[in-house]
Amino acid sequence: MAQILDGLKVSKDIKQEIKVEVDKILAAGKRPPHLAAILVGESGASKAYVNSKVKDCKEVGFKSTLLKFSDTITEGELLGEIQKLNQNPDIDGFIVQLPIPKGMDEQKVIDAIDASKDVDGFHPENFGRMALEMEAYLPATPYGIMTLLERYNIDTQGKHCVVIGRSRIVGRPMSILMSSKGNPGNATVTLVHSHTQNIEEFTKNADIVIVALGAPKYLKGSMIKKGAVIVDVGITRVEDTGEKGYHLEGDVDYESCEPKAGWITPVPGGVGPMTRAMLMKNTLLAYKRKF
Ligand code: GUN
Questions:
Q1: Closest ligand 1 atom to the C-alpha of 99?
Q2: Going by C-beta distance under 8 Å and a sequence separation of 6 or more, which residues neighbour residue 133?
Q3: Residues 29, 31, 36, CA angle at the centre, nearest 5°?
Q4: pLDDT number for residue 289
Q5: 97 CA from centroid of ligand 1 (Å)
Q6: Are 47 and 39 in contact (CB under 8 A)?
Q7: Which of these is catalytic: 6, 56, 92, 120?
Q8: 53 annotated active-site
Q9: Are residues 51 and 172 in the same domain?
């Protein structure tokens, strides 16, 4: 039976630590950190994510501003809104919730964000700094996973870590962080993706498997080694007949993996809340130092 990597608990600890710092800032008579979020369009999932970010801000004592636009906004107008936030000294950091409507150039939008306010860590300058092991805003999900492993003293040094999925916001940065100097870090990393043949040949030999595919219940117990650390990044909305009309499913087939794994993240309550907490952490960093 696996031990649980309790992201919900650790995220609460982190938010509490941030709140203590904010209370000190306020007691010194200074203004609180301020996060802004841009939401374009009507996606239910995106709305839910942004609303939880606003809620997190309230919880830790940050100011937040939510800018909502209909999907009829032009790319030029959106870039104009980003410039306003870049230039507003009252905003420490901001995010553009992804995905943005089809037809807009996502990279162009991300490039327009001032790297010093890019608390999502998506700007090429931050990604490059991360890859070079320089100080940077780390993307929230990989940062959250690294922090979760750190708080549970999971030894990754010299271990074989398989990352499944090469997305720009999870898989690829995760593979870089796990191979970077440090512990967590110093792992031997294999990044597998849709063109990899016989993925289970890799996962069966892995000490740590990080799955970020968006394919519900993809990783089966038969694909992992006994005692492996299993990190599930998936949160796919799967329709059901319940009150909400959907539930969340991870990329890990928990039933078959949990008895075999050494450590495992649950869904919900694993990586998701860590991601949210790390956005707050990055916003506090943006407030404290502008690099
Ligand atoms: N869409 C899915 N995850 C994220 C995230 O971490 N940040 C933003 N801005 N959009 C997302």
A1: 1
A2: 180, 181
A3: 170
A4: 82
A5: 5
A6: yes
A7: 120
A8: yes
A9: no
pLDDT of residue 99: 94
Residues of the chain under the 50 pLDDT cut:
291
Query: 79 in ligand 1 pocket by Cβ < 6 Å?
Result: no
Contact partners, residue 282, CB within 8 Å, separation at least 6: 93, 119, 120, 121, 137, 138, 140, 143
The DSSP H or E segment spanning 257 is helix 254-257
Spatial separation of the C-alpha atoms in residues 111 and 92, rounded to whole Å: 17
Both tokens of 21, joined, read: 């710092």
Q: Does ligand 1 have an atom closer than 6 angstroms to the CB of 100?
A: no
Any ligand 1 atom below 6 A from CB of 110:
no
- C-alpha 121 – ligand 1 centre gap (Å): 10
Asked if 188 and 211 count as a contact pair (C-beta separation under 8 A), the reply is: no
d(CA 290, CA 267): 35
Asked whether 4 lines ligand 1 (CB < 6 A), one says: no
Query: What's the domain range around 193?
Result: 140-273
CA distances from 59 to 73, 111, 114 (A): 31, 30, 26
Answer yes or no: is 49 within a domain: yes
Same domain, 174 and 233: yes
CA of 98 to the centre of ligand 1 (A): 5
Distance 99 CA to ligand 1 centre (A): 8
CA nearest ligand 1 atom 8, residue: 97
**Is residue 154 within 6 Å of ligand 1 at its C-beta?**
no
How many domains does the chain contain in total?
Answer: 2
Question: Does one domain contain both 266 and 228?
Answer: yes
CB 221 within 8 A of CB 146: no
Clarify whether residues 231 and 159 are in a common domain. yes
> What CATH number does residue 147 fall under?
3.40.50.720
Is residue 6 in contact with ligand 1, taking CB distance under 6 Å? no
Asked if residue 239 and residue 167 are part of one domain, the reply reads: yes
